[in-house]
């Protein structure tokens, strides 16, 4: 909210109520989008390079080869995932702008219908006609507030942060790199890939468990259930890649 908008909001609130608001601090968690990007980046970063390294180790590749291929995959994956996050956020911006333009045109073209929609929305919250009529009339006198009300309560759309696209891209890419380097770490020090993969499995499964637990805590789900699910998925992916590489090598 801008300073001007904040000033307008404060003027419209009774002093005693404003005093209550000034002394009340909300403790809600509001960084959901950033956490979502971190979860996307880290989960893919831990799983994909882990499965790749396990597969190459199963094919008896050297640690240096696995490390080179793994780093290349992490770089490519980070760029790809970051670009995906950027395009997704830009699509949300474009969708919001398109719907806002359409809603704005409807407010001008069919104001009575739009006012009836406001009344219908308020009625869904149990507000009686004699109670919501002043609200409807007040919104009709303020087209910008009316438009924002319709965007939020009729269409369920929140105005995207203009910095969201770049923020999402960098967050996902950095999270992917951080997650992707964990399964590759043992290959930096253990020359034989078949030995390094054992250390990689232990380290990565532990990281997946910790990550799954943290994800469960942030998303208000069951932390241990989330931890075991995340670890299980990572283990299945790496085991499948390892076994597939062994089968291919056997028939060559």
Automatic annotation (TrEMBL):
Compartment(s) where it occurs, according to its Swiss-Prot or TrEMBL record: Vacuole membrane
Main location: membrane
Taxonomy, superkingdom: Eukaryota
Protein keywords: Ion transport, Iron, Iron transport, Membrane, Metal-binding, Transmembrane, Transmembrane helix, Transport, Vacuole
Single GO MF descriptor: metal ion binding
Membrane topology: Multi-pass membrane protein
InterPro entries: Ccc1_fam
Catalytic activity reported: Fe(2+)(in) = Fe(2+)(out)
Any GO CC annotation of this UniProt entry: vacuolar membrane
Function: Vacuolar Fe(2+) uptake transporter.
Annotated TM spans: 169-190, 196-214, 226-248
Entry comment, domain topic: The cytoplasmic metal binding domain (MBD) is located between transmembrane 2 (TM2) and transmembrane 3 (TM3).
Similarity-based family: Belongs to the CCC1 family.
Pfam family, one: VIT1
Complex formation: Homodimer.
Name under which the protein is recorded: Vacuolar iron transporter
């Amino acid at each position: 909210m801008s300073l001007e908008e904040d000033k307008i909001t404060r003027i419209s609130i009774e002093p005693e109520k404003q005093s209550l608001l000034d002394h009340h601090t909300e403790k809600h968690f509001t960084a959901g989008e950033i956490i979502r990007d971190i979860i996307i980046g880290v989960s893919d970063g831990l799983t994909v390079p882990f499965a790749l390294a396990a597969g190459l180790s199963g094919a008896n590749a050297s640690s240096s080869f696995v490390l080179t291929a793994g780093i290349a995959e992490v770089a490519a994956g980070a760029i790809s995932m970051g670009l995906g996050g950027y395009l997704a956020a830009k699509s949300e911006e474009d969708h919001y702008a398109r719907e806002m333009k359409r809603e704005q045109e409807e407010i001008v073209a069919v104001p009575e219908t739009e006012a009836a929609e406001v009344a219908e929305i308020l009625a869904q919250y149990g507000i009686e006609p004699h109670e919501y009529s002043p609200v409807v009339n007040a919104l009709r006198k303020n087209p910008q507030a009316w438009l924002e009300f319709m965007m939020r309560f009729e269409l369920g759309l929140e105005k995207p942060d203009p910095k969201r696209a770049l923020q999402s891209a960098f967050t996902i890419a950095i999270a992917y790199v951080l997650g992707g380097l964990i399964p590759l770490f043992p290959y930096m020090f253990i020359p034989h890939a078949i030995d390094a993969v054992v250390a990689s499995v232990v380290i990565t499964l532990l990281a997946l468990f910790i990550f799954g637990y943290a994800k469960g805590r942030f998303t208000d789900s069951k932390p241990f259930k989330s931890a075991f699910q995340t670890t299980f998925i990572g283990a299945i992916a790496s085991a499948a890649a390892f076994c597939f590489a062994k089968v291919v090598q056997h028939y060559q």
